[in-house]
Amino acid sequence: MRIGILGLGRIGAFHAETLSGLDAVESLVVTDPFADAAKAAADRFGAEVVDSPEALLAAGVDGIVVAAATDAHPALILAGVEAGVPVFCEKPVAKTMSEGVEVLKAVRGSDVPIQIGYNRRFDAGFTAARAAVRAGELGKLHTVRSTTLDPAPPPAAYVAASGGIFRDCSVHDFDIIRWVTGREVTEVYAVGGNRGADYIKEAGDADTTGAILTLDDGTIAVVSNSRHNARGYDVRMELHGFTDSIAVGLDDKLPLRSVEPGVTFPAGTPHDFFMDRFTDAYRAELTAFTEVVAGARPSPCTIEDALEAGWIAEACTLSLHEHRPVTLAEVRQA
Fold first, then answer.
1. Any idea which fold 2-112 has?
2. 230, 285, 239, 329: which is closest to 115 by C-alpha?
3. pLDDT of residue 334
4. Which residue range or ranges hold the Gfo/Idh/MocA-like oxidoreductase N-terminal domain (predicted)?
5. Whole-angstrom Cα distance, residue 5 to residue 45?
6. How far apart are CA 178 and CA 331, in angstroms?
7. Third-level CATH fold of 121-273+309-332
8. Single pTM value for the model
9. pLDDT per residue over 23-60, tens digit each?
10. Cβ neighbours of residue 316 under 8 Å, at least 6 residues apart?
11. Contacts of 302 (CB under 8 A, 6+ apart)
């Protein structure tokens, strides 16, 4: 098949590399406002370069991958749907929840599939955890812990435009908690602090946060995030039930050092970047998209799914700013 890529920044170039290695993908068509980025992709992957999204959609593509800036996501999703071309779009659907809801309304009733990029759904550990929960191996859940710790904060320009740590970082934890447990979040309570880069505080954001999520069956989920984890990129999940407990992310590349006498785990070089930690997941995610394009499976992460994670992020942001518990029903009505 022939896949178009819109946006060739860090993640777009990474997707181009991944797609170029998939058996199902015969050719790539790319476009980016920066001509050098498009030329680099053409030189490296033999991609065809066009000068606009319109030209790309007219180039006979079977599916498109939207990796452009967040502000462009709504228009590019709708353009793909209008052209009848299956769409893969990196999260979020839109910069604000109201815009995301409008996108959902606009595509409702269309049979053009849309897949939103939440790569943890394709990680082997998270997939196994979901299967264990579904099979009842843990018994009734009572506690979930989910962690995302970045090795260093993003640039000031990114922080200023990201919408905050809950919307750009924690949202991955929120999505995977829903996906693994199969439950919905009903209420949140969030706290945050600033112990590092001054520009994060100046942007009105926190660099380290914690959130307590109450799920609709009474399970408590604890989410921990930070922009500062010098040992590496740390993504983990624990699930504790009345029958068993399991963990995702406890491998030899875990960025954590044990001080217990005689303990050598973890023994490997720590994960230092999200592309390192989730290389296989990204490949599986885009392989799934080629199956969506081929009509062999439905979207594994819909706009509705992405918006649900977004509402949790909205509730946590409000809770942090107002120092109080916030229900999901409250932010949906706002």
1. Rossmann fold (3.40.50)
2. 285
3. 64
4. 1-118
5. 12
6. 18
7. Dihydrodipicolinate Reductase; domain 2 (3.30.360)
8. 0.94
9. 999 999 999 998 888 889 888 888 999 999 999 999 99
10. 166, 170, 188, 190, 209, 211, 326
11. 114, 115, 116
